[in-house]
Design a protein that fits this description.
The chain is mainly beta and about 750 residues long. It has 7 helices and 36 strands. The protein is globular.
Length: about 750
Amino acid sequence: MRISMLALLVATSLTPVTAHAADSTAAAPAENATASEAETIVVVGKGEVRQAQVLSIKDLGQLAPGTSPLKAIENLPSVNFQSADPFGAYEWATRVTIRGFNQNQIGFTMDGVPLGDASYGNLNGLHISRASATENLASTRVTQGAGALGTQATNNLGGTIEFATLDPVDHFALDAAGTYGSNNTIHGFVRANAGMAGGARGYVSYAYQNSDKWKGYGQQRQHVVSAKGLVPVGAAELAGYISYSDRREVDYQDLSLEMLNRLGYNWDNVSNNYALAVKLADIGANNGYTGAVATNPSAGTAWPAPITNGDDAYYSGGGLRKDTLGWVGLKTPLGGMFKLDVKTYYHDNKGRGLWWTPYVNSPNGIPLSLRTTEYAIKRGGLFGTLSGEIGAHKLVLGAWWEHNAFNQARRYYAVASRTDPGQGLLDWPTNPFATQWEFNFATETMQYHVADTVKLGDVTVNFGWKGFAVVNKANPLIAGGRAGGRISAIDWFQPTVGVAYKLGQHGELYAGFAQSTRAYQSATTTGPFSTSQAGFDAIKGTLKPESSDTFEAGYRYADSRINATLGAYLTNFHNRLLVVPTAAGIVGAANLLSNVGGVRSAGIEALVSAKLGHGFSATATYAYNDSTYRDDIGTLKIAGKTTVDAPKHLLRGELGYDNKVFFGRIAANYMSKRYFTYMNDQSVGGRTLVDATLGYRFEAGLAKPVELQLNATNLFDVKYVSTLGTNGFGFSGDAQTLMMGAPRAVFVTLKAGL
């Protein structure tokens, strides 16, 4: 079926491709950019045979320092980004969807190194905000379709997001910045660079951020230390990068619509009132709500107003993450016709997800304990490409291998007493009194790709394929009702093909097709092993990996003043895997998992970015997406219903000004209604948010002008629901799975450089 389809598409040259027309490894184009390059904010994918755009360092630099680079891409067509904090960095609530696909179905890389699937549970990677300080990123490349052939990802059904770090410059340079603002936010950054023309060069940097939560009590804090170096070796280049991150964040409380209406927008956990948390735990035990053993009958059984149950507020929750990520790469010519680009990498992660639960007693009899989900990743890999030109053909052969050893455990720690929790909200717990389950997972990934780009006058044809085998193994040290065993996803032929036709000096038509398959996840909280052993044994022989077929076509235009694109797409998503929780998400019971049919997504995307003259610029994007389920689930009639968290309309507009002394921009972001149940009986309304930047540059006798920058997020202080599905999506009815968006926040930054 696939072979005949590929032959037809090649013959007609009317279908899209997901390999870069110039380089199917599809590393972000600005991987070798320096801070002085990339003046254009948005660049459309000229020569590409699919929808793609690149955001430059200039765009990242106008965000409030400390902002996740994921927030910057929300201005691109079909990209829906949500978080519950002003910076888009609070990971429990961070969500990205593209064309209706969620972030676990999107590929993420940095300098080509795989970052995994952006799961909060850290099973195979890390968020970009922990891999690099935003100030060290040169560009962000977004492909809204199935992504490039050479992307190091086995989950990119719905696109890829590829980050590239800044290269060091060939002279001494020192950059520093400091930020202060709303919620007692402090952000600092410093980078020292050394190098010589034609010789070795490198930099080391340090970024620090600490911010109070905008509601409730607690901090969100991070340290990031990074270094990068380049060394010419004859005609070759040797490069290396290493980064260490220590991130700690206190959670916001997940809400339902009922809780929002009853308790209000600013409702949160009681992290600054331990005595109240103990009292609520006692009441929940006394009235039977939590099932914990009652040890203090005098607390009574009545909830204090406005609380009506034990899940309205907890003592606290949080996330702790320590990551070390490094790579070494070599680029070298081979003869006069070929070049080799190879990298090896290693990532070490330690993490804890914290929740002070009233459902389990501590050994001292208090009906409150600290429950953790614990993570440990040790993964390493190697990837590379061999490319060369033979006549009109540019040929690329690439491969990627990774071994991921992942340990995940569920443990419980005692609180010290009724008056002392025994540890701070951001401390790493020690000495557990119980382990509910613990697993060692091993995931082996082998992927290869082949691509050929043929340039025939004004026509560029690109075709190829990739294939992979991903083997997942789960070894239960303590089973705890979860499954162990082995399962694999193998698909050696995932074709892509497309054509680009040049129209005049600046215009271009493109069309293409791409097929992609998603591997399974190795974790107790998601994927095949999150079910019971009996459930896993029943499905492991019949379960199918998710896959997608994406058709794209469009027109793009680029000259010295205008970058624009207009495209349409159709994606058929097959073998959708549905994880059905058997209890409230916070409880963490074993799931049910099965293939439940498909989804069809169709839409249009438009972007215009223009330099208006006299320092003014403007960018406008619009996306329409119609994503619907194609099959019912048993007696649940969801066929034809809109996909959860998939707004039909996304509209963004931005006006900027920069005369080299004064600069600024104002950006408006509209999103239409979103559903958070499969039956579409629960939804949140649309909203429009406005962000603004103002800045002033002045000479101070330094190598670079000093910059004073003012940023405001949610300028008009709109109250809205941001993230959906923090505790998953249900079939129908309200659920405690929503996050509120942050109110207006203002930050001032001073930047200087030598």
